[in-house]
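Archive record:
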Amino acid sequence: MPRPRSLTPDQLASAALAVLDREGLAGLSMRAVAKELGMSAMALYRYVDDREELEGLVVERVLSAVDTTPPEPGASWDDRLRIMVGRLRDTITAHPAVLPLTLTHRHRSPSGLRWSETALALLTEAGLDGERRVLALRALLGYVIGAIQLEHLGPLSGAGTVTIAELPADAFPYMAETARQARSVGVEREFFGGLEVFLRGLGG
């Protein structure tokens, strides 16, 4: 007789998320998650078919924390879109190693789909439809994902910016000057300032 299941999908996802937070995406494996749960890797296969299914559980576990309800309609569409983007960023930055998985499992996460549905409603309110709306949503997600990766992998306050600021001005005048200015830009200003540039272009 098969052993009765005793772990919930949320418990499996929580264990996988603990591995991701501690060891990064490269450290995520069926064996590592099984160890986190105090069981053998073979025992874990009684709950999930493979790592792909486990990844999907983790993505939904993280994105389920995002508030996907539409913001109050009293504000402008772009202010409400800023709120939606801020909610997504706050959730993902708590678990940055999950970020690449949100791309490969975007079609499997009900919470991720609900966030995009709300964002699309706001883009529609802004007058976008058809291909332009497709490109706008894709560009918006591209900005959010890229900005979060830059914040964690290549922050403006990091050593890379210092190195660029010290480049010879005759060879890299714009890079060197821009890097010197970048050192004083905080992470909040960097993210939401870039978002403003995007939204201004979108509203044009």
About this structure: The radius of gyration is 21 Å. The longest helix spans residues 130-153.
